[in-house]
């Protein structure tokens, strides 16, 4: 192995094709897109040089502020929800259901394999008010509460999105974290129990520290996935009411392809990239510090 | 050693070749994926329209099996649809890839059609129809409307409409409501209907434009015909108090619950159905809706039971008498790049036959001349009469706006009437999206 990897030609052969494809489909478009930030116009009408206008516009555009604040709120709430729910479920699999957790695991995982659009339509119908009441409003009416226009109001629409996305993805995180939990050596848990640690004490002092690496990977997965949310929101609310549930990705898409301004769209993409980068660096830094402490 | 090196070279060559072939396959798949576009479109009459519009595709299919059979045999019709709210972005993407179909719905904002025309994607119909010898088969008034909106005779007038308020005569009579003349009468009528348990106005907040039409109707009636031209020219702003007043008047209808529950989730079809099954007393819509009214299965209140009135006058306003908005609906453009001789056959046949065929089969009024005697129902006659009597008409709210302001206006219309956005915020949002 050492001799193969020491041979430069072999390295070129092994890495070359993958690097070439990666450069063509990832790096070239990224730099191309960054180039667009200095231009205005689109593929139909052509491009004109705009200097740094697009970048300065990012700071004054109220729509960017709304979209950025929605994206961050969404990412934080969903990440916390996904990880907490996932972790609780995985604890339940390991410590309560134990060997008989198969069926529950499959059921909770089921929404993960459903197409996003199908799930969004399901939730749209469940929370519907017009032309007829959906399941949720019918239940509310049943207990004497008036129907609520869930998608007519920014905050209730936000919570429906949150509910849907947590329901849709908690099964995935439960399985991911479950894999981390079953790796904890049984004898270590056993000895902790002998020392009198049970329940919350056992989880806090033994299970949580030992599952920290997988927990951190889950958080990075989750936060990067949620910052880039697009499909579930387009299918459920299409960014509405108004633009109150429009994340940066959707605003970027609309600016580029509906408003025909590729340059400004690319600037929004750059903002999103920076946001992802900062969050990832932050999490990596804190995880490294944690590991040295342990 | 030499064999080793040769082997290495061969290996390198093999890897290089397979990578190249992979890349080529990827590119190849890309270009054949554009098959619906201009290149592969040469063999078929590809037509992209909004999914909400069923009248035009149905009628073209009828023509394909009848008067236009020769053209259709040489170039079969292929219809693709996209939701109207996604139309603008679809067109821009296709145009950017040179993949526009032969005929396509011309976008929600006339500004987009002008941009497509400037980049050579829109066929000049004046020249083409003259060449085909059928220019006289299009109503001159329709051509004038198109030129005023689209900067040239760039689109086909499959629909030629007046917009106004349709009302349920029975519900009006039952509640002792006279046809409202002024905005105050209109609000009073809505109030009476609301008290009697009927939704006063059925409107699609999901589409947004049926709501913003009310704002522009109010503006034109209150401030005069050129109210929105002044905004487009920069002489006035939507945030000026007299403009905000119009948004406030419409928001007020929403606050009182006159659009019913969950107006933001009501789509186009639901809004029409609410009116046609008697749940709603009034509907603001263009005369293209006659095709729905003529559908006996859907129309439960009966054709005789539907009345048509102009937009109510705002008292003391500077607007015109009997104010109707006139337009060519969502018109269709022909791609200059995909146009060829066979497409010319189609175009000639459509221009000659669509007018009578659509009127006879669907009661739909178009900007093409009606060449055959067609029996029409009294309501359609009324609308035809209104169209020919209307010498002065107004535009719609977003007619002079770009795509961004159009989207801002239509997506925020529902929040405006549900009260989650104030009239000032609404007008400010649209104004700042205007370029």
From TrEMBL, chain A:
The keyword Transmembrane helix applies. PROSITE patterns: ABC_TM1 (PS50928). Residues 68-283 form the ABC transmembrane type-1 domain. The chain crosses the membrane at residues 12-32, 74-96, 103-123, 157-181, 202-223, 262-284. InterPro entries: MetI-like, MetI-like_sf, UgpAE/MalFG_permease. It is found in: Cell membrane. Its main location: membrane. GO terms for cellular component: plasma membrane. SUPFAM superfamilies: MetI-like. The keyword Metal-binding does not apply. GO terms for biological process: transmembrane transport. It comes from the Bacteria. Keywords: Cell membrane, Membrane, Transmembrane, Transmembrane helix, Transport. It is a multi-pass membrane protein. Belongs to the binding-protein-dependent transport system permease family. This is Sugar ABC transporter permease. It comes from Arthrobacter agilis.
């Amino acid at each position: 192995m050492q001799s193969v990897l020491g041979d430069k030609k072999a390295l070129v052969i092994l890495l070359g094709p993958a690097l070439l494809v990666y450069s063509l489909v990832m790096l070239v478009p990224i730099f191309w897109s960054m180039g667009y930030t200095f231009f205005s116009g689109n593929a139909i009408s052509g491009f004109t040089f705009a200097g740094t206008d697009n970048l300065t516009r990012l700071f004054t555009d109220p729509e960017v502020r709304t979209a950025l604040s929605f994206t961050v709120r969404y990412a934080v709430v969903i990440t916390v929800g996904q990880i907490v729910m996932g972790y609780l479920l995985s604890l339940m699999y390991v410590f309560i259901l134990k060997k008989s957790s198969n069926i529950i695991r499959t059921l909770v995982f089921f929404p993960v394999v459903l197409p996003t659009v199908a799930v969004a339509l399901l939730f749209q119908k469940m929370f519907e008010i017009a032309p007829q009441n959906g399941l949720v409003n019918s239940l509310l009416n049943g207990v004497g509460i008036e129907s609520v226009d869930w998608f007519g109001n920014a905050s209730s629409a936000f919570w429906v999105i949150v509910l849907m996305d947590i329901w849709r993805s908690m099964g995935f995180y439960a399985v991911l974290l479950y894999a981390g939990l079953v790796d904890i050596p049984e004898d270590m848990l056993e000895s902790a129990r002998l020392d009198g640690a049970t329940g919350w004490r056992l989880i806090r002092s033994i299970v949580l520290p030992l599952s920290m690496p997988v927990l951190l990977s889950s958080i990075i997965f989750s936060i990067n996935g949620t910052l880039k949310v697009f499909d579930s929101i387009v299918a459920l609310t299409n960014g509405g009411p108004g633009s109150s549930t429009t994340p940066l990705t959707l605003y970027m898409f609309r600016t580029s392809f509906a408003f025909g301004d590729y340059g400004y769209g690319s600037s929004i993409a750059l903002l999103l990239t920076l946001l992802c980068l900062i969050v990832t660096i932050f999490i990596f830094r804190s995880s490294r510090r944690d590991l040295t402490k342990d | 050693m030499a064999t080793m090196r040769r082997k290495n070279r061969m290996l390198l060559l093999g890897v290089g070749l397979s990578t190249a072939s992979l890349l080529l396959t990827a590119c190849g798949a890309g270009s054949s994926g554009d098959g619906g576009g201009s290149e592969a479109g040469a063999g078929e009459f590809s037509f992209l329209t909004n999914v909400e519009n069923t009248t035009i595709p149905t009628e073209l299919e009828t023509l394909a099996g009848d008067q236009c059979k020769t053209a259709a045999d040489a170039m079969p019709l292929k219809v693709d649809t996209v939701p109207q709210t996604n139309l603008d972005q679809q067109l821009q993407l296709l145009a950017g890839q040179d993949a526009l179909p032969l005929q396509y719905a011309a976008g929600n904002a006339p500004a987009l059609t002008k941009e497509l025309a400037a980049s050579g994607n829109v066929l000049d119909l004046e020249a083409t129809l003259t060449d085909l010898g059928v220019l006289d088969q299009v109503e001159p008034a329709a051509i004038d409307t198109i030129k005023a909106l689209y900067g040239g005779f760039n689109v086909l007038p499959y629909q030629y409409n007046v917009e106004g308020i349709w009302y349920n005569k029975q519900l009006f009579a039952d509640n002792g409501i006279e046809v409202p003349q002024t905005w105050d009468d209109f609000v009073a009528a809505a109030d009476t209907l609301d008290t009697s348990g009927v939704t006063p106005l059925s409107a699609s907040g999901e589409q947004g434009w049926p709501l913003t039409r009310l704002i522009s109707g109010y503006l034109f009636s209150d401030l005069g015909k050129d109210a929105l031209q002044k905004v487009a020219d920069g002489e006035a702003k939507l945030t000026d108090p007299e403009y905000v007043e119009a948004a406030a008047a419409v928001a007020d209808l929403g606050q009182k619950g006159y659009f019913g529950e969950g107006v933001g989730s009501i789509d186009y079809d639901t809004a029409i159905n609410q009116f046609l099954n008697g749940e709603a007393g009034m509907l603001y819509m263009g005369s293209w809706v006659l095709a729905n009214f003529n559908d006996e299965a859907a129309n439960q209140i009966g054709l005789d039971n539907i009345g048509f009135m102009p937009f109510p006058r705002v008292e003391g306003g500077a607007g015109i008498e009997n104010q109707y908005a006139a337009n060519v609906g969502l018109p269709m453009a022909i791609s200059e790049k995909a146009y060829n001789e066979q497409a010319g056959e189609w175009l000639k046949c459509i221009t000659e036959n669509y007018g009578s065929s659509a009127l006879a089969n669907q009661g739909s009024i178009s900007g093409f001349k009606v060449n055959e005697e067609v029996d029409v129902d009294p309501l359609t006659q009324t609308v035809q009469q209104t169209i020919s009597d209307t010498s002065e008409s107004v535009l719609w709210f977003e007619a002079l706006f770009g795509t961004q302001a159009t989207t801002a206006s239509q997506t925020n219309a529902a929040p405006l009437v549900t009260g989650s956005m104030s009239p000032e915020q609404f007008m400010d949002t649209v104004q700042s999206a205007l370029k």
